[in-house]
Design a protein that fits this description.
Helices cover 42% and strands 16% of the residues. By secondary structure, it is of the alpha/beta class. It has an eight-stranded parallel barrel with strand order 1-2-3-4-5-6-7-8, surrounded by seven helices. Helix 8 links the parallel strand 6 and strand 7. Helix 4 packs parallel to helix 6, helix 6 packs across helix 7 and helix 7 packs parallel to helix 8.
Length: 240
Amino acid sequence: MKLTKPAEHMTVSELAGYIDHSVLKPQFTLQEVREQITAGIRFGCKTVCINPANLPVAQELCKGSATGICVTCDFPFGASSTESKVAQAEIILRNNTKIHTVDEIDMVSNYGLIRSGEWTAFGNDIKAVADAVHKSGASIKVILETDALTLDEIAKASDAACTAGADFVKTSTGFYTEGEVKGATTEVVKVMLDAVHGRCKVKGAGCIRTQEHFFELINMGIDRMGIGYRSTPVVLGYMQ
């Protein structure tokens, strides 16, 4: 994103426009889901990011607000068939109503294909879902799960995802368990920004827990960040 001023000089409202407020814990009760969606709206976040089962609740609560809805697809592993991913995206978007539409889909890529060097299959998987999402007027973010990848793989995957129709490439699910979890490091985000070269946007997610890190990524030119529900008030400066 082209900066007009450094993060340090932005208003809280401007900063909140970078945030997808994450409400993805599978163990959340419906009351906890409602509380966290309401918090995301209260903070003025760009979207609340939810699991598909919670879409009706998000549509109800986001009605009349400036906060959009982002729904995950094939989360958190990305290992379903392409047909299954397309079907899930279509079902999510079919539930769009006059109450509040779904603005964005966050789809997990098949990152095993990245590690295998199967770039045609990787791109075809993304393109099929992107085409379905775009038919409904929504945007698609493609999660690469960067903690599972080398920097070279991240660069190649970012380029391939953009070519396949991704509106955003995104670092992480926040649910990776097979190794060290670093999330949206400045090194990884720089690799992604350089690889896409403005052709699509970049979303960082995972381990963004301080205002210093949040500001650093904004000043690098990142477009969006997935922030855990506990960290949103921290990065916005409500909790120091």
